[in-house]
Amino acid sequence: MKYIPAFILSLFLLTSLSNSYAQLPHINEKQIAARVDSVLALMTLDEKIGQLNQISYGIGWGPTVKVAVPGEYAQMVREGKVGSFLNAIGAEYTGELQKIALKESRLKIPLIFGLDVIHGFKTTFPVPLGEAATWQPELAELSAHYQAMEAASAGIHWTFSPMVDIARDPRWGRIMEGSGEDPYLGSLMGAARVRGYQGNLSDLNIIACAKHYAAYGAAEAGRDYNTVDISERTLRDIYLPPFKAALDAGAQTFMASFNEIGGIPSSGNRFLLNDILRDEWGFKGFVVSDWNSIGEMIAHGNVPDLKHAAELSFNAGLDMDMESRGYSEFLEELIKEKKVDIKTIDESVRRVLRIKFILGLFDDPFRYCKKEREDKNIMNAEVKNASLEVAKRSFVLLKNDGGLLPLSKDLKTIAVIGPLAASKEDPNGEWACQGAAEDVTSVLEGLTKFTNEKSKILYSKGCEIDGVSKEGFSEAVEKAKQADAIILCLGESRNMSGEAYSRSSLDLPGVQEELAKKIFDTGKPVVVVLMNGRPLSLGWIDENIPAILETWFAGTMTGDAVASVLFGDYNPSGKLPATFPRTTGQVPVYYNHKNTGRPGNPGNRYTSKYFDLPLTPLYPFGYGLSYTTFAYNDLKLDSEKITKDQSLTVSVKVKNTGRYDGEEVVQLYVQDLVGSVTRPVKELKGFQKILLKRGEEKTVTFTLTEKDLRFTAADMKFKSEPGMFKVYAGTNSADVKEAKFELTE
Ligand code: NOJ
Fold it and tell me: In this structure, which residue's CA is closest to atom 3 in ligand 1?
């Protein structure tokens, strides 16, 4: 297996790594099935049910390291009553548990250890939403590869990642864990992460889990765990494609989501778990519940008690129970009562054992528990370099009036102000796993290091992220007045996004905007550096601050990455994976919306719009500036008509018209003008990130085929329909050139 170290990556910036190292080896299904059956034949019913039981190791929800194996767990393992642990980590301690399974349980079936490795194990990479802003799936793959390497070295076999939920509502805190609002970008990113984690299933890879199946991101009002009620068409065309892409990339497990869809909780949803996932898509892996999502069907009001919940979930196709303990308590009884069939139990056990075989655990149960690897592979220079490279490319330049950025390296005094400027905790973002604050470079540290005493750095916090006190304002203003430029670090704290962190407002929390006004009033040049896990509404900031850089939560190397971008060593190239609204009241606002019968028209009151807002969002999907500028010209189609068997070549000339070399994400959208069901105003169908030297022009070409034009039609068939289409190419979803073509029979 050949890896490309991150420092070399910068040289091969735009080369896809995808096929170079992440290839699932051929799985000899026949041979594995025979071995699985030979184990199954020896198992008692109790032991079978044990394989379907996953419990959290340790106290509470968080990962637990360095505790002696508690008696309760040791006993369960000895008796074969548990197939998997989540949250047990460390080569040594997972090894201890594995030893009990291997030495003291009757059948010596190895345990599988799962963990939420979402954007890093110890070295953190940008949160997935930030990573999606690179529009470089190869970087998501690279980051997943390193995350896997660290986790696998600490005894982990399986990550509950990637999260491939589409999120159209930024109030939902978990938008941070996914790739944003678009099914196409989300599919590419999700698939890349699966490839990165699973690689070629070596002992430095981990099994991926596509979650949360399904439509968890469509929670009403963006409130976590909330009800979802969408049509089957929207489910299939918007929410399911990234799951299918993850499956096609080889994802071996899926996680059922907490939510209901149209009255049916996912954990008991046969249509999702069986009919679509297994029958339609041919999934061979296993499905795990979310944390107690089986038990939560009681609160959903779908079952009276845990026994009924276990029956419903199991018969719907949910193989492994994470922490409701419904399977361990009731499956045996349910079999006796003939409510569950032993054949179905056998099928689920087969699926779980198959993964354990695929991971090589039957052949070498301790292959992931080697202390030397843990010392060598975690947080080494190569991983940190990779994190830095991804971080730089995840930043989105939202505004740069007058070319304020990049900053001159000759500035005498720089004021670094704001509640996120010196934070080492927040840049890690939520779900940071073992990522520790002391390993993070804050923005302040990064700038200090970068300027290397050539500039004087003045720091002032100014205010808390979410406080009311303005006591720090005067000191901040004093420092600002002494500076040649001000870097103002604003945003959310790490735990304002992620699970259970939905917000009802997308404004900057606390008194941060007021601080910004005071700093702005000094008349000095101000650059706002944002850290946040979701699109924000940036009204006053956007109207007044000349330069704004969105950095999401960029992980361990945040400060280094920010410094490199602010001073122009790296020219920002990120693009928004989710629309930024003007106000919270504008959400959900997403680019691939429908036209309605009365498309919004500012000149006509009786059209679909808000009378107190412009039609457009603050920053559209796909938006992001560079220190240079690009001009799009000569959008051409090689034909005005194609049949279903022909392809269409779309080309557009892109020229670097500015003063710097730079990268641009050239985006291709399509609109199906008339359909048997209404169609979105635009759908992303392709993109290419290209590097253009100053003054350079390139012709970028895309190929479209009939397959790209398919959707769930009125007859519920996934197909294209003949007729007229528009093609758009441009720098973001709103700023595009257009052309037309016809798809004929
Ligand atoms: C609940 C979350 O919804 C899920 O994403 C996570 O994998 C599990 N808890 C396990 O921590």
Answer: 290
pLDDT in tens, 556-609: 999 999 999 999 999 999 999 999 999 999 999 999 999 999 999 999 999 999
| Architecture of the structural domain at 20-374 | Alpha-Beta Barrel (3.20)
**Any atom of ligand 1 within 6 Å of the Cβ of 728:** no
Pick from 56, 89, 499, 501 the residue to mutate for probing ligand 1's pocket: most ligand atoms within 8 Å of its CB.
Answer: 499
Strand-strand pairing, 53-56 and 84-86: parallel
Which fold, 387-586? Rossmann fold (3.40.50)
Q: Are 183 and 166 in contact (CB under 8 A)?
A: yes
Ligand 1 center to 61 CA (angstroms) = 9
- Note the pLDDT of residue 69: 75
- Which CATH architecture best describes the domain 630-743? Sandwich (2.60)
The rounded Å distance from CA 291 to ligand 1 centre is: 6
In the chain, how long is the greatest CA-to-CA distance? 80
Would you call 116 a catalytic residue per the annotation? no
Centroid of ligand 1 to alpha carbon of 469 (angstroms): 35
Instruction: Check: CB of residue 288 under 8 Å from CB of residue 348.
Output: no
Which residue pairs, CB below 8 angstroms and at least 24 apart, start in 360-363?
Answer: 360/201, 360/203, 361/110, 361/112, 361/157, 362/35, 362/39, 362/110
Average pLDDT, the chain: 95
78, two tokens: 């000895």
Q: Around Cβ 513, how many Cβ atoms within 10 Å? A: 15
Q: Which of 116, 165, 290, 426 is catalytic?
A: 290
pLDDT of residue 255: 99
Nearest CA to ligand 1 atom 7: 160
Q: Whose CA is nearest to atom 10 of ligand 1?
A: 291
Give one word for 175, left, alpha or beta, with left for phi > 0 and alpha for psi -120 to 50. Answer: alpha
Task: Take atom 11 of ligand 1 and give the residue whose Cα is closest.
Answer: 116
**Residue 342 above 90 pLDDT?**
yes
On the question of pLDDT at 19 being above 50, the answer is no
> How does strand 158-159 pair with strand 112-115?
parallel
For 666, the 3-state DSSP assignment is strand
Domain boundaries for CATH 3.20.20.300 within the chain: 20-374
CB of 291 closer than 6 angstroms to any ligand 1 atom: yes
Distance 607 CA to ligand 1 centre (A): 42
Nearest CA residue ID for atom 4, ligand 1:
290
Distance 553 CA to ligand 1 centre (A): 20
Whole-structure pTM value: 0.96
Three-state helix/strand/coil letters over 149-210: HHHHHCCCCEECCCECCCCCCCCCHHHHHCCCCCHHHHHHHHHHHHHHHHCCCCCCCCECEE
Of 575, 65, 694, 142, the closest CA to residue 382 belongs to: 142
Dist. CA 545–CA 552, nearest whole Å: 18
Ligand 1 atom nearest to 161, measured from its CA: 7
Tell me, using a 6 A CB cutoff, whether residue 296 lines ligand 1. Answer: no
The b/e string for 254-273 (b: 16+ C-beta within 10 A; e otherwise) is: bbbbbbbbeebbbbbbebbb
What count of residues does the chain have? 745
Cα-based distances in Å from 467 to 121, 202, 504, 631:
31, 48, 17, 44
Q: Is 116 in the pocket of ligand 1 (CB under 6 A)?
A: yes
From ligand 1's centre to the CA of 163, what distance in Å? 10
Domain(s) of CATH 3.40.50.1700: residues in the chain? 387-586
pLDDT-based confidence at residue 25 (cuts at 50, 70, 90): confident
CB 397 within 8 A of CB 549: yes
Ligand 1 within 6 A of CB of 177: no
> What's the confidence (pLDDT) of residue 11?
38
Enumerate the CATH 2.60.40.10 domain ranges in the chain, comma separated: 630-743
211 CB within 6 A, ligand 1: yes
